[in-house]
Amino acid sequence: MSAEGYINRWWRIVGGLCMNLALGAVYAWSIFVAPLEKEFGWTRAQVSTVFTILVLVFGLTFIVGGRLQDKKGPFWVSVTAAILNSLGFFMCAYTESRGWLFFWLGGVAALGQGFGYATPIPVMSKWFPDRRGLAVGLAVAGYGGGSAIFGPLGGSWLIPTYGWRATFMTFGIIFFVMTMIGAFLLKNPPPGWKPEGWSPAPASKVTATKYEFTPTEAIRTPAMWFMWVAYALGTSAGLMVISQLVPFARSKGIALGLATTAIFIGALGNACGRILSGWLSDAIGRLNTLRLMIAISIVAMPILYHVGGSVGALYVLVFAVYWCYGTQLSVNASSAADFWGPKNVGANYGILFTAWGVAGIIGPIIGGRLFDIYKDYQAAFYTAGVICAVALVSELLAKRPAEPAATTARATV
Q: pLDDT digit string (tens) for 38-92?
């Protein structure tokens, strides 16, 4: 491949990272839980509802953002995302009620999150048909790794020094700069583009279908629904931990600074899972990789509860749980392009991604409400392990969709 081709491809990854590092700071949400509870007297479940609404709206608006990206290209969708996400975080600085947080973070910022996350995945899928799993993993690693930067920055310095309101403002300004850089770098390749000298291996487990499924056709395939259930339940467990990580660690007697550091460890696991599991899925297949990581989650969830009082063990298990969670965000995205074609991947993955929106309801509810009932996290972590077991069964039932018999007229390479 020419030097220009390499530069074009890797600039897109830089754009995806800039976009997703800013968007992924939402995974550091738990740094705001204790300050909000202290100032307003809200319960753990009430504060967790903000994160629940954000994830749900994000998951639903991803479909719209993905469809617009498929039709209009990534630039203006990305610019819209930059404005909405940054404005939403900035305005949270003026919070006086949960309704305000619901609107600005759960509504405005979440809409920006859905539009922003919808652009890098289709762009990577089109620029890297030869290494789709790895490329998508690299781009979305920023979403997993954003909390590694902004969690410690906010939890260990900004909030203790300047307060949570100033932290929201600072985040909003930083996010705007980063996402606008991403918007200018994310561009689609010319129609029909493929790497020089590359042709897909017909027998490969990860070769993209030659048939471009429309969204209507994609939702009629059994794979969509088995993978949807597995995605929803598998990521619910991860989101439960993400929404409660700092309060959970503190409940186990971990000092605040060490508990905040767990966000950094988890973010590294999340990012590594997206990149390395993406690479692994290029070798052993998408579904096999997803099944392996969900199986690990079944065991890791209850163990994490029992070892959470030891800093070293807490960090190891948090890293593992976040790895498995990040895998699902990366490999499901690559699977959508492989299984239903890259042309409509924005919309088709958007449909599958609604599962993550549902997980945003299930996960924080498990963590917040079960804690409020039992004043302990044991029931939450055991419940998370059980739903991962159900997710594994559903993932085992999923099979690569067969191309419709009459593909000749509509097939595109």
A: 999 998 778 878 888 888 888 788 888 888 888 888 999 999 999 999 999 999 9
pTM over 0.90? The answer is no
Q: What letters, b where the CB count within 10 A reaches 16 and e where it falls short, cover 81-98?
A: bbbbbbbbbbbbbebeeb
Task: Decide if 182 is inside a domain.
Answer: yes
**What is the helix, strand, coil percentage profile of the chain, to 5?**
80, 0, 20
Report the alpha-carbon distance of residue 277 to residue 285 in Å, rounded: 10
Vertex 101: Cα angle to 100 and 105 (nearest 5): 125
- What is the largest distance, in Å, between two alpha-carbon atoms of the chain? 64
Q: Residue 346's closest CA among 144, 61, 34?
A: 61
**Mean of pLDDT values over 194-211:** 66
Domain region containing 291: 7-191+208-397
* Residue-level pLDDT at 393: 97
In a domain, 152, yes or no: yes
CATH of the domain at 29: 1.20.1250.20
Task: Give how many domains the chain has, as a whole number.
Answer: 1
* 336-366 tens-digit pLDDT: 988 998 888 888 988 998 898 888 788 878 8
